[in-house]
Structures are given as structure tokens and as C-alpha cells.
Design a protein that fits this description.
By secondary structure, this protein is mainly alpha-helical. It is 93% helix and 0% strand. It has one domain.
């Protein structure tokens, strides 16, 4: 919520500054040539500020995307490692109970498959969630850039 208030404040400040500067220019007693020159300067200053804000938004968006990608890769790697450990432990248990009844061996194999499937599903869900969040961040940044242009 604090980010939204800051963003709204900055947008309001920028718009207010432009409106105030334009009003001051239009109401000031100047010749047409001076007025056009002043308006041109103010327009150029507004353009430069907009370009700076756009560059900042793109940079922050790229930073957010890079951060989200790193985190999703770390999560995927952790999930993969943990699933491998679980599968290895299940296989170890299955090999230790080799002398036991065939039904116990089949149950352990089924359990390993189920655990692998559940871990794969969890990994995919996490990956999809992170991708969606990255896409949302890009969308918000694009909307903000477009609204400023």
C-alpha cells in the first residue's frame, strides 16, 4: 500500500507541476515568442523527466524479473534435490525390505511414484506461481510506463 501511495504522489506531483508551470507560462505577461520558447523548454523538461522515469521503471522491472527468476530457480532446485532425496530414501528402504513379502515391495514402489508425482506437481505449481508473479510485475510496469507516456 505504501508503494501505491508513493507512486500516486509522484504522478500527482508531476502532473501538478506540469499544470502549474503551464498556467504560470500562459498567465505571465510575455511576448508570443518568449511564451513559445518557455513552453518549448517546459515541454522538453517534462519529456526528459518522463524518459528518466521510464528508464527507472524498466530498470526496476528488470531487477524484479531477475530476482523472481533467481528465486524460482532456487526453489525449483531445492524441490528437485529434496524429491531426489525422497526417491533415494524410498528406493533404499525398498532394497532393504527385499526379503520381505512382495506386497510390501510393491507398496514402496507405488509410494515412490506417488511422492515423485506430488513433488513434480508442487514444483510445477511453484514455477507457475513465480512466472505469474513475474508477468504481473511486467504488466504493472508496462501499464505504468504507458500511463506516463
Amino acid at each position: 500500500m505504501a508503494e501505491m501511495n508513493t507512486k500516486d504522489f509522484l504522478i500527482g506531483t508531476l502532473i501538478g507541476g506540469i499544470v502549474g508551470a503551464s498556467t504560470a507560462l500562459l498567465l505571465a505577461p510575455k511576448s508570443g515568442k518568449e511564451l513559445r520558447h518557455d513552453i518549448s523548454e517546459q515541454a522538453q523538461a517534462a519529456k526528459e523527466k518522463t524518459e528518466q522515469l521510464t528508464a527507472t521503471a524498466y530498470e526496476k522491472g528488470n531487477n524484479f524479473a531477475h530476482y523472481a527468476k533467481e528465486k524460482s530457480n532456487n526453489i525449483a532446485k531445492t524441490v528437485s534435490e529434496q524429491s531426489s532425496q525422497v526417491v533415494d530414501k524410498v528406493k533404499e528402504v525398498a532394497s532393504n525390505v527385499k526379503g520381505q513379502a512382495q506386497s510390501v515391495k510393491e507398496d514402496a514402489s507405488d509410494l515412490a511414484s506417488e511422492l515423485t508425482n506430488e513433488v513434480d506437481q508442487a514444483k510445477e505449481e511453484i514455477s507457475n506461481t513465480v512466472k505469474k508473479e513475474v508477468d504481473d510485475i511486467h504488466s504493472k510496469i508496462s501499464e505504468e510506463v504507458e500511463s506516463r507516456n
